[in-house]
Amino acid sequence: MLIAWTTVAKREQADTLATHLITAHLAACVQIEGPLRSVYRWEGKVETSEEYRLTIKFVESRAAALEAYISAHHPYENPEWIVVRAEHVAEKYLSWAVAVSTSSTL
């Protein structure tokens, strides 16, 4: 199982993105946190903004399609996209994630 993070500016964007990822069977679960405060450098200036973080849990077979979806549908010009591999996942949870992420209706 892989876990990815991205952020968006508005709760509605987070809700829409999360719902689409689940509906398209690209992710098993998306958790939304926020608002949170982000401080970063953009175009030479230090910026501060309120954002919502999406934590996306998905199976490796969906990684390429998920990243392509984020690239095409994310509202940011340069979205955060960080992916890590889960060191251990309970077998029942992993089986569930595989089952809900597999569909011939994509």
Structural write-up:
- It is a single chain.
- The protein is an alpha+beta fold.
- It has a single domain (2-101), classed as Alpha-Beta Plaits (2-Layer Sandwich).
- Helices cover 33% and strands 37% of the residues.
- The protein has helices at residues 11-23, 63-73, 91-101; strands spanning 2-8, 29-42, 45-58, 82-85.
- It has a 4-stranded antiparallel beta sheet with strand order 2-3-1-4.
- Strand 2 and strand 3 (45-58) form a beta hairpin.
- The two termini are 20 Å apart.
- The mean pLDDT is 94.
What is the helix content? 25-40%
State the shape: elongated
Named at the architecture level, the CATH assignment is 2-Layer Sandwich
Using only C-alpha atoms, the radius of gyration works out to 14 Å
Q: Mean pLDDT, nearest integer?
A: 94
Number of strands: 4
Adjacency order of strands in the biggest sheet: 2-3-1-4
Question: What is the CATH third-level topology name?
Answer: Alpha-Beta Plaits
Number of helices: 3
Low-confidence stretches: none
Strand content: 35-45%
Domain count: 1
Identify the quaternary structure here.
Answer: single chain
Distance between the termini: 20 Å
Helix/sheet category: alpha+beta
- CATH class descriptor name: Alpha Beta
* Major beta sheet summary: 4 strands, antiparallel
Name the helix and strand elements from N-terminus to C-terminus, one letter apiece: EHEEHEH
